[in-house]
Amino acid sequence: MARRRLHNEDWGFETNCFVCEPKNDHGLRLPFFHDDEADTVEVEFRLDDAFSGAPSFVHGGVTLAILDEAQAWATIAVGGKFAVTTETTSRFRWPVKIGRTYKVVARVTGQDAEQITTGATVYSPNERACVETTATFAVLSAANAIRAIGSDVR
Predict the structure, then answer these.
(1) Which pLDDT tens digit goes with each residue over 96-110?
(2) For residue 151, which of 14, 20, 7, 8 has the smallest C-alpha distance?
C-alpha cells in the first residue's frame, strides 16, 4: 500500500479548514491520507466529549463533516478535480462513540466533466460500518476554483 499524507499546501493553497487544517486551533486537525493502490482517501479519528451530541456519542453533524471532508479529498486526490458538495445522503447504522478510534474510507464512484460522485464509510474499531454516505460534487472550473480558494492554484 502506497499511502501519502494529503496537505492543502501540496495543491497550491492555504486553508483554515475546520476538519483537516493542522494550524486551526479550534478544528479537528485530522490527517487525511491517499492510498494510491486502493484509490481511496482515509482518516482515523478519536474525539472527546467536546464533540458529543448525546453524552457518549459523537455529534452527528461532526461525523458528517468528517465524511464530507474525506469525500472532498477523494475528489482532489483520486478524481483530480476541485469540486464542491451539491448533495449528500447518509445513513447512521450504529453510533459513533466518544473516546473510540474510527476509520473513514472514501472513494470516487463516478466522474464526468461536470460532477464527481463519491461514497464514504465510518468503520468502528471492529470494522463495523457505522455511518455510510454518498455525495455528488460539482466540478469547479479553473475560474471558480480560483474564486473558491482565493488565489491561483498550481
Answers:
(1) 999 999 999 999 999
(2) 14
Residue 51, helix vs strand vs coil = helix
100: CB partners within 8 A, 6+ apart: 46, 124, 125
For 125, phi and psi rounded to 5 degrees?
-55, -25
Alpha-carbon gap, residue 37 to 45, rounded angstroms: 22
Residue 152 has pLDDT above 90, yes or no: no
Asked if residue 71 lies in contact with residue 118, where contact means CB atoms within 8 angstroms, the answer is yes
Cell numbers linked to 138: 460539482
pTM across the whole model: 0.91
Backbone angles phi, psi at 135, to 5 degrees: -150, 155
The cell for 16 is 483554515
**Cα three-residue angle 147-89-74, rounded to 5 degrees:** 50
